[in-house]
Structures are given as C-alpha cells and as structure tokens.
Amino acid sequence: MFTEDEVEKLRKAGKIASEVRRWTENFVREGMKVIEVCEAVEAEIRKRGGEPAFPCNVDINEVGAHYTSPPNDKTVIPKNSIVKVDIGVHVDGYIADTATTICFNYELSNLKEAVEEALTVAVKTVKAGVKVSRIGEVIQATIERYGLKPIRNLTGHEIGRFTIHGGAHIPNVGSLNGYKIEEGKVYAIEPFATTAEGEGEIEENGVGFIYRILKEKPPKSGEEKVLFKKLKENFKTLPFALRWALKVSPTEDFYEVFGRLVKARYVFSYPILVEKRKQPIAQAEHTLIVLRDRVEVTTL
Ligand code: MN
Ligand code: MN
C-alpha cells in the first residue's frame, strides 16, 4: 500500500500533468512546428515543479504513439489534422500519464468524442478486484457505438516508480486476460480509436526518437561506457528523447557513439506506431491510483 507521502507525490504529478494538458489544448495550432510543442510542454512541466516522465509525444493523424521531435525537427502540424499530445510527469519517480486529442478537422471530431466517452466509462468501471477484460469490454462497446474501431494492440498499463510501463496491461477490447485490478497500484487507461475503414491495429513504422536504457551494466570501456553512464544517471529507467540525450552529452561524435549503444542493445529505441491502413487515430488517457476504499484519478 502507498504511504501518505507517496500518494501526495502521485497527486502532485497528476495535478501538473492535467494543468499542462489543458495548457497544451489552448497552445497547439495548425502550422506550428512540432518541436515547438514538445519543448513548450516539457518546459511547462518543469515550470510547475515536475520532471517529464517521458518526452512529449505529438502523434499526428495515423500515428498512434511514440513520435517526439528529433533535434532540429522541421515537421509542422498539418491543416485539418488530428493531433494526440501525450504528457508524462514525475515527481521523485512517481508518475502521471495523460493524453488529449486536438482535432482540427470537424469530420473527425467523433473520434475524439468516442475515446473521451470510452475513457469516462472505463474510469468508472475501475476498482480493486475488477477484471481488466471488463474494462476492455466497456471501452470497445463505447467506441463501436460511434461506428468506430478501437485499436486492439495498444493498451493501458500499470505504472511503477520510475517505470512507465509496469507489469499489467489494460486492454482496449474484450479479451481473455484474467488479470484483476489490484489495490495499492497505479494504472493508466488509454482508449484509442480509428475510423470504420481502419484495421483497428497499429504497426511499427521504422525507428523513432525516443529511447530507454535497456541493460543494467555499462559497456566495458571507451566512449560508450562514458555516454551510457551519463544517460543512466540522467534518465534512469525512464524513456528519453534524442533531443535530451544530445544536451546531456554534446560531443562531436555523439551520434556515432549513441548509435553503437543502440546497436549493441544497451539502449532501446521505441518504434513509431502507425495505423495499419493509415487511418486517423484519437486517444484519451488518465492515470488512477487504486486505494482500499476508492479510486483516485490523478489527472482529471
Ligand atoms: Mn501516455
Ligand atoms: Mn500510457
């Protein structure tokens, strides 16, 4: 079970995450550079006394997850697009994970409505002892009532200290998963939906610009060892952006050394995830603490 101090840190992270989410909804405009959004979101988190728990994700149209700007990104928010901004905050390793969909195309506004309603219904379903398959069922039913499809291979997840994706998964469709929600744990619930023309599945689309330390021990020697130690010291077990890594170690041969760490699997690269039929995706997400007598949504 959580101590009162731990619950306070989870609450603080949640408050910062929801404030920044609201701030972002007013900030993002068509034609804006994606890197401007990422950097502004990360700065807003720090301004409020939190740390980013992962790089700000800006996932446009058919991209479902894991896009953050690389250094000097020239990508712009397109006209008539649907944009997901996924925000992670931690306070001393206690994490809040929340996301919103910003829709510049009124023909796609039902996607946003569907995931928001699915999230509301799902959150009400959560309590200790409830099967996660039940949560998946209500998410699926809500999205299908809009004539849309849930993304079946993206899920919510348990969250640990300094660990964004803990053990359990919370499906977005009915499933045979027998796992039950447990007291004293933190979970993120995140419904994703695509159009009726979509496959309802994402696939990997090349490498991305988000990374995580994968191995416990550093490489034996050389520049790799130095860089690995710097990355581990700064980001621990949390995901980090290429932008951040470059700032931590602005050496001339950074890309060469970093590339070797990725190749030797000291560092994991999160692939960008795209809808299989390139259909637009919407997402909504909240983080919850399951306590003995109640469930607290930290990111409301
Ligand atoms: Mn998220
Ligand atoms: Mn999440």
How would you characterize this protein structure?
- Helix 1 runs antiparallel to helix 2 (34-47), helix 3 (109-125) runs antiparallel to helix 4 and helix 5 packs across helix 7 (254-263).
- This protein has 7 helices and 16 strands.
- A 5-stranded antiparallel beta sheet has the order 8-7-9-15-16.
- It has 300 residues and is of the alpha+beta class.
- The protein is 33% helix and 26% strand.
- Bound molecules: manganese (II) ion (2 copies).
- One manganese (II) ion is lined by residues 97, 157, 188, 190, 285.
Assess the beta-strand content as a share of residues: 25-35%
The counted number of beta strands is 16
Percent helix, as a range, is 25-40%
**Low-confidence blocks of residues:** none
- What ligands does this structure carry? manganese (II) ion
By CATH, the architecture of the largest domain is named Alpha-Beta Complex
Order of helices and strands: HHEEEEEHHEEEEEEHEHHEEEE
* Largest sheet, spatial ordering of strands: 8-7-9-15-16
Class from helix and strand fractions: alpha+beta
Overall geometric form: globular
**In the CATH scheme, what's the topology name of the largest domain?**
Creatine Amidinohydrolase
- Note the gap between the termini: 22 Å
Question: Rg to the nearest angstrom?
Answer: 19 Å
CATH class of the largest domain: Alpha Beta
Indicate the mean pLDDT.
Answer: 97
Largest pleated sheet: 5 strands, antiparallel
Discrete helix count = 7
CATH superfamily of the largest domain: Creatinase/methionine aminopeptidase superfamily
